[in-house]
Write a structure and sequence with these properties.
- Helix content is 42%, strand content 10%.
- The protein has 372 residues and is α/β, with parallel strands linked by helices.
- The protein has two domains: 235 residues, Aldolase class I (TIM Barrel), CATH 3.20.20; 72 residues, Non-ribosomal Peptide Synthetase Peptidyl Carrier Protein, Chain A (Orthogonal Bundle), CATH 1.10.1200.
- The longest helix is centred in the last third of the chain and has 19 residues.
């Protein structure tokens, strides 16, 4: 009997051109994922997990793997220093409550890369192939991979890596249009993404600098990608997903307030009223504050908020003041065309400047022998 191969989008119940939320280190917890899903994200992921930490049975890592009952579909992203470790970790994930697993081959953070994880794998396409193959053999879930154009501009090998990912059996791939060495001041190379799309037969998602619908339209028009993965554009702006669908970038004040208060409620449900929950929420509230006039006092107060209840009061007070001034909608939060608006990036600051990656338990103690 001939087996009919089901398209991975159909298998997961995804639309023909899906919108994915990237696994954002230090950000993609359940409340944030749920906020983005409520605005139209088709698939979200648990933030990047270390295969080494899973095999060491790190409690912190396993705590990050919790899935909320409201999440109808959820992926998980993993990185590891060897094909063997990734395969064994995926075998563990296969017994957990996930729908798809992505292999991170693009994280640029030094702490991650120096162990051979993240974009550290890009210089070894054979290891890319073996890693994807080991993961595919360890699970029935669709296995995917997210990668960059190469280590740096002199050693770009995106076609070779993409073909290795496909040969290993991946269901689809996501390509970020920069090299590991590039910072976010370097424009996304759409031509590089187009070449990847043309070189493989499995679906390709484009990633990088998607902050508004025109960015998405241009990426699709130039590259022909099958879907999009949104990263930094979703920070403080889960409405981006609905904008990408229907073209409406407007955000009403009432909706903004309701969304923030709902996010705060989910935050409290997840973490309780401990001060750590409020501290963790501060960055989200600061990102949400983009696009409103007279926001400086609100930002200063949020940055000192010691409780989620206090944060809720600040949101209500701020929106009340906006209504009294007759403000009904958020102003545009995107300045300039896509090639010219990279002067400030909070995620870049949080990751590279602080040299942090999430799911990086055991990275510091990883031995050279484990990197082969």
């Amino acid at each position: 009997m001939t087996m009919v191969k089901i398209h991975p989008f159909e298998r997961l119940g995804l639309p023909s051109s899906p919108l994915l939320l990237a696994p954002l280190a230090g950000v993609s917890d359940h409340p944030f994922r749920r906020s983005c899903t409520s605005k139209g994200a088709d698939l979200t992921y648990v933030e990047m997990i270390s295969a080494t930490a899973m095999l060491y049975e790190s409690k912190r890592t396993f705590d990050m793997l919790k899935r909320h009952e409201s999440e109808a579909i959820l992926g998980v992203q993993i990185t590891g220093p060897s094909a063997d470790q990734v395969g064994r970790a995926v075998a563990i994930l296969d017994k957990m409550n996930f729908d798809t697993v992505d292999i991170n081959m693009g994280c640029p953070v030094k702490k991650v890369v120096k162990t051979g994880c993240g974009s550290g794998i890009l210089r070894d396409p054979e290891r890319v192939f073996q890693t994807v193959k080991a993961a595919v053999e360890a699970t029935d879930m669709p296995v995917t991979a997210k990668f960059r154009l190469g280590w740096d501009k002199t050693t770009r090998n995106e076609i070779e890596v993409a073909q290795a990912i496909e040969a290993g059996g991946a269901a689809w791939m996501t390509i970020h249009g920069r090299t590991r060495a590039d910072d976010y001041g370097i424009p996304v190379d759409l031509e590089g993404i187009r070449r990847v799309k043309a070189a493989v037969t499995i679906p390709v998602f484009g990633n990088g600098n998607i902050f508004q619908k025109s960015d998405a339209d241009r990426m699709i028009a130039v590259t022909g990608v099958d879907g999009l993965m949104v990263s930094r554009g979703a920070l403080g702006n889960p409405w981006l997903f609905s904008e990408l669908r229907d073209g409406d970038a407007s955000v009403e004040l009432d909706d903004w307030e309701e969304t923030l208060l709902q996010h705060l409620e989910w935050q409290q449900s997840e973490y309780g009223e401990a001060i750590g929950a409020a501290v963790c929420m501060r960055k989200h509230l600061l990102w949400y504050a983009k696009g409103w006039n007279g926001v400086k006092p609100f930002r200063e107060a949020v940055n000192a908020a010691g409780s989620l209840a206090g944060a809720r009061d600040l949101v209500r007070e701020f929106t009340r003041g906006l209504r009294e001034r007759g403000v009904t909608h958020r102003s545009s939060i995107v300045q300039g065309e896509s090639e010219t608006r990279f002067a400030w990036d909070p995620k870049y600051d949080m990751d590279r400047s602080l040299d942090r990656g999430v799911g990086d338990d055991a990275m510091e103690t990883l031995q050279v022998s484990e990197m082969v």
